[in-house]
C-alpha cells in the first residue's frame, strides 16, 4: 500500500484562508498580523516533521476538505486561544490538530449524511473519540495528546460521549478544546447545511454554558473580536 502523504502547500493555503476568515482586519486584534500567522504556520510545519504525527495528518487530509479544514481550524483557534490565555503545554498543538483523527474510521457516507442518522450510524460516530485515542497511542503519542481525542465530546452536564463524564472535572485544555471544536464545526459549511456566521455561532455557544465552559467562550469571543462582551459577566 502506498503511504499517504501530506500536501503541505495545500495545507498552508487552507491555514491562511482560515486565518483570514477569523481575523480579516489587518489592523485590529493583536494576533491579526502576518508574523502571528507565520508563527502558527511554522508550528504546523514542525508538527508535520514529527514522524509520529505526519502519517496521522496525511490520514486526515485523505478524508477530504471537510474534516481536514476543521482539523486545521481547531489547530489555529485552539493555539491562538491557548496562547492568549498563556496556557502552556507543548502537546496542545498536536492534540488540537489530531482530536478528530478517529473520524478517519467513519465512512464519508455517514459523515456527510444530511438526514437523521440511524442508531447504528450514530453509534459509529460516537466511537470516534475512543478510536482516535487508540490510534494516537498506537503512533506513540503521549496520553495527554490522546486524551484530547478521547474527551473532546464530553460535556459539563454529562450529555456528552463516550462516557457522559462531568466535563467540568476534566483538565482545562480539554474544556478549551470542546469550545473551539463546536465553534469551528458551526462556522464551517457542511454538505448538509450552510456555515453559521461568527455571531450566530457565539450566540449558540453562550446558550450552552451548562455544556461548555463559559470562561473559554468568553475568551474566544475576545480573540475573535466580533463584538464587545460585558467584562463582568463571562456568559453575557
Ligand atoms: Fe469529534
Ligand atoms: Fe472536531
Blueprint of the fold:
Layout: H1 8-22, H2 34-48, H3 54-61, H4 65-84, H5 92-98, H6 108-111, H7 119-126, H8 128-138, H9 143-151, H10 172-187, H11 198-206, H12 214-224
Bound molecules: fe (ii) ion (FE2) (2 copies).
The site of one fe (ii) ion has 5 residues, from helix 4.
Would you kindly provide a written description of the structure presented here, covering whatever features stand out?
The protein is mostly helical and 236 residues long. The protein has a single domain (8-224), classed as Hypothetical protein af1432, CATH 1.10.3210.10. It has twelve helices and no strands. It has helices at residues 8-22, 34-48, 54-61, 65-84, 92-98, 108-111, 119-126, 128-138, 143-151, 172-187, 198-206, 214-224. It is globular and about 45 Å long. It starts with 7 loop residues before the first helix and ends in a 12-residue tail after the last helix. Mean pLDDT is 90; it is low at 227-236. It binds fe (ii) ion (FE2) (2 copies).
CATH architecture: Orthogonal Bundle
Shape: globular
Q: For the record, what is the CATH homologous superfamily label?
A: Hypothetical protein af1432
**Would you tell me which CATH topology applies?**
Hypothetical protein af1432
Ligand inventory reads:
fe (ii) ion
DSSP summary: helix tally: 12
Query: What's the domain count?
Result: 1
Mean pLDDT: 90
How would you spell out the order of helices and strands?
A: HHHHHHHHHHHH
Approximate helicity band:
55-70%
Protein name: HD-GYP domain-containing protein
InterPro entries: HD/PDEase_dom, HD_GYP_dom, HDIG_dom
Amino acid at each position: 500500500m502506498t503511504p499517504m502523504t501530506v500536501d503541505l502547500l495545500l495545507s498552508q493555503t487552507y491555514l491562511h484562508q482560515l486565518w483570514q476568515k477569523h481575523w480579516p482586519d489587518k489592523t485590529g486584534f493583536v494576533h491579526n498580523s502576518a508574523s502571528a500567522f507565520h508563527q502558527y504556520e511554522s508550528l504546523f510545519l514542525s508538527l508535520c516533521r514529527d514522524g509520529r504525527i505526519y502519517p496521522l495528518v496525511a490520514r486526515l487530509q485523505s478524508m477530504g476538505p471537510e474534516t481536514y479544514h476543521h482539523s486545521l481550524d481547531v489547530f489555529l483557534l485552539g493555539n491562538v486561544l491557548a496562547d492568549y490565555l498563556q496556557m502552556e503545554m507543548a502537546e496542545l498543538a498536536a492534540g488540537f490538530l489530531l482530536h478528530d483523527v478517529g473520524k478517519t474510521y467513519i465512512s464519508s457516507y455517514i459523515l456527510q449524511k444530511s438526514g437523521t442518522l440511524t442508531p447504528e450510524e450514530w453509534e459509529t460516530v460516537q466511537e470516534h473519540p475512543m478510536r482516535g485515542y487508540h490510534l494516537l497511542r498506537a503512533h506513540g503519542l503521549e496520553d495527554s495528546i490522546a486524551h484530547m481525542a478521547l474527551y473532546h465530546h464530553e460535556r459539563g452536564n454529562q450529555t456528552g460521549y463516550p462516557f457522559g463524564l462531568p466535563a467540568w472535572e476534566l483538565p482545562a485544555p480539554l474544556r478549551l478544546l470542546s469550545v473551539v471544536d463546536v465553534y469551528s464545526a458551526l462556522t464551517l459549511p457542511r454538505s448538509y447545511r450552510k456555515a453559521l456566521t461568527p455571531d450566530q455561532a457565539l450566540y449558540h455557544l453562550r446558550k450552552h454554558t451548562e455544556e461548555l465552559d463559559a470562561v473559554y467562550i468568553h475568551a474566544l469571543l475576545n480573540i475573535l473580536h466580533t463584538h464587545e462582551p460585558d467584562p463582568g459577566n463571562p456568559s453575557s
